[in-house]
Amino acid sequence: MSDLAERRGTTDELLFSPFRIGGVGLRNRAALSPMTRISATENGLVTHRNARYYAGFAHGGFGLIITEGVYPDAQYSQAYLHQPGLATSAQADAWRAVVGAVHAEGSAMFAQLMHAGAQSQGNRHRRETVGPSAVAPKGEQLAFYRGNGPYPTPRALDKREIPNIRRGFADAARHAKVAGFDGVEIHGANGYLIDQFLTDYLNRRDDEYGGSVENRLRLAVEVVDEVLQAVGSELAVGIRISQSKVSDYEHRWAGGADDAEAIFSTLAGTGVHFLHTTEYRALQPAFPSGDETLAGLAKKFSGLPVIVNGHLHDPKDARFILDSGTADVVAIGAGALAQRDWPERVRAGLEISGDPHPDTFRPLADIKDWELDL
């Protein structure tokens, strides 16, 4: 870590105090939230543009950089055209320069491993989609990410295919290690495959992967276990969890806090190193009855380090949720796109904007060639 990075990490304020996740030291409690950017090459290779993009946030003071969702296998996992992958050695090699650029700025970097399942809208490897059951996600594909029309009805996965999915995550985690990442985050949120298994109306299976909450959580537990066995002694391993989805913002777990207890305590029992909760507004109660947030429930029932995401770009909100003890690290998304130096601006007491400039998202969320003032 550079002298500049060390100076940036020196403060008595909790937001800017060091923290450790799974043996990985963070210089502060500010993380860049995963955000889809679809700016890799057609065959899933990241480039110098991705390196400038991620290094820009590290230079702006974020102590942890979490990548956009990265597809783990060359079968059914890809969600979007031009999405980066960690399914091959070539893809892992391409990430080396990106990780190196982030490390040079004094920040840690985690790869988010994401299987799209039925929520795929662009896969160069397969035409059909797969899911826990032959039930299409609600809503329509995102034109923003080159999608069009309703999501197709997926093919229900045969139980014999599930070991291949688990191995895909484990192999991608091994590729992440080769690329130099400090950790991996398994994407179990926002309506992608692992969340599809957890979601009652998308999972109509009558085998051990369907029915009860514990059964619907089984794929998540097995993926975490396989990834931990593959890299858990060398990389931090966590999982992202949400109730809402890309195509269903209003979804809530039917069992309320009881479901939260079952989900978070079961995940903690795997030995996973951290949880990452994401809601549209992280400070709002998770359920109509009760006043506990999803992050608070995750901390209460798991006892693990919790990263929290959801409309926390206002420094008062970020500080409040950390000071309350319900989360340990805040992940900033849109607020980071608005100002990639969000942590440095907060530290200096400068104005914070929550609205990204429209050009940040155009065209089709391609990365802008931001030049670093290094």
Q: Which sequence of strands runs across the widest sheet?
A: 3-4-5-8-9-10-11-12
pLDDT under 50 segments (min length 5)?
1-11
Number of helices: 12
CATH class, anyone?
Alpha Beta
| Run of helices and strands | HEEEHEHEEEHEHHHEHEHEHEHH
How many domains make up the 3D coordinates?
A: 1
* CATH T-level topology: TIM Barrel
The whole-angstrom Rg is 19 Å
Shape: globular
- The CATH H-level superfamily is Aldolase class I
User: Mind telling me which CATH architecture this is?
Assistant: Alpha-Beta Barrel
Report the mean per-residue pLDDT as an integer.
Answer: 93
Largest sheet: 8 strands, parallel, barrel
General description of the model:
With 374 residues, the chain is α/β, with parallel strands linked by helices. The chain has one domain: TIM Barrel, CATH 3.20.20. The protein contains 12 helices and 12 strands. The chain has helices spanning 3-8, 48-59, 89-104, 162-179, 193-198, 213-216, 218-231, 256-268, 294-302, 315-323, 334-338, 342-348; strands spanning 19-21, 24-26, 30-32, 64-70, 108-113, 130-131, 155-156, 183-190, 236-245, 274-278, 306-309, 329-332. Strands 3-4-5-8-9-10-11-12 form an 8-stranded parallel barrel, surrounded by 6 helices. The chain has a two-stranded antiparallel sheet with strand order 1-2. Mean pLDDT is 93; it is low at 1-11.
Break the fold down into its secondary structure elements and pairings.
Layout (H helix, E strand, L loop, with lengths): L2 H6 L10 E3 L2 E3 L3 E3 L15 H12 L4 E7 L18 H16 L3 E6 L16 E2 L23 E2 L5 H18 L3 E8 L2 H6 L14 H4 L1 H14 L4 E10 L10 H13 L5 E5 L15 H9 L3 E4 L5 H9 L5 E4 L1 H5 L3 H7 L26
Parallel strand pairs: 3-4, 3-12, 4-5, 5-8, 6-7, 8-9, 9-10, 10-11, 11-12
Antiparallel strand pairs: 1-2
Helix pairs in contact: 2-3, 3-4, 4-7, 8-9
